[in-house]
Amino acid sequence: MAEEFADFETAHRKDISDDEFDDLDEFDDPDLKQFIQQQRAEMMEKFEKEQEAIRRGTGLYREIIEKDFLEHTTSYDNVIVHFYHPDFQACKVLDRHLEKLAKQYLDVRFLKLNAIHAEFFVQKLKIKTLPNLIMFREGKVVDKIIGFDELGGTDDFHTRTLENRIARAGLIQKKAITRGHGYSDDESDESDGEWH
């Protein structure tokens, strides 16, 4: 966890130094000064939220082991667990999308569990196909995504497709849909802005 934190902090740390803002006196325009101060405050707030998310165990897509499964799924309101096989290409594809979403939705814990080493929960949750994404709210299963059928039936779906599907399950609350949501795999806006 400490290593994941260090990697996340390094990747997301903004160089918000006071030196960059010390020269505000050079600007005569009070509106510009106010705008710059507001931007600085927003950047600091975002950074602090990211740090708090890390402390809560969100903001990262991380692997857990079977003995920790119940603790993770019952100790947080919204949890998504990807049951995967390390040799399955489809699971690796889903991993890439979930990593992006974990950074975007800090109020959801995104986890993965190697199905080979989780026999009890694979049987208990009746997992027969991988990848298998199980969504929990307050410790209870609320939805599943099995394979890629609901994501277009192919492994070249957009992150937004998965995001929309998770939103329909009620685990994430999306802000207004905008073109180019910020995911590098979204070449175009595949949505008309409506929930389907």
Could you write a compact summary of the structure shown?
The chain is of the alpha/beta class and 196 residues long.
Q: What does this protein look like?
A:
- Residues 17-27 have a biased composition (Acidic residues).
- The chain has 196 residues and is of the alpha/beta class.
- The protein folds into two domains: 2-13 and 25-56; 61-168, Glutaredoxin, CATH 3.40.30.10.
- It contains six helices and five strands, in the order ααβαβαβαββα.
- It has helices spanning 2-12, 30-56, 69-74, 89-104, 119-124, 159-168; strands spanning 61-64, 78-84, 109-114, 132-137, 140-146.
- Strands 1-3-2-4-5 form a five-stranded mixed β-sheet.
- The two termini are 37 Å apart.
- The model is unreliable at 12-17, 176-181 and 187-196 (pLDDT under 50).
Features:
196 residues; alpha/beta; Glutaredoxin; 2 domains; 5-stranded mixed sheet; 6 helices; 5 strands; 39% helix; 15% strand; disordered C terminus
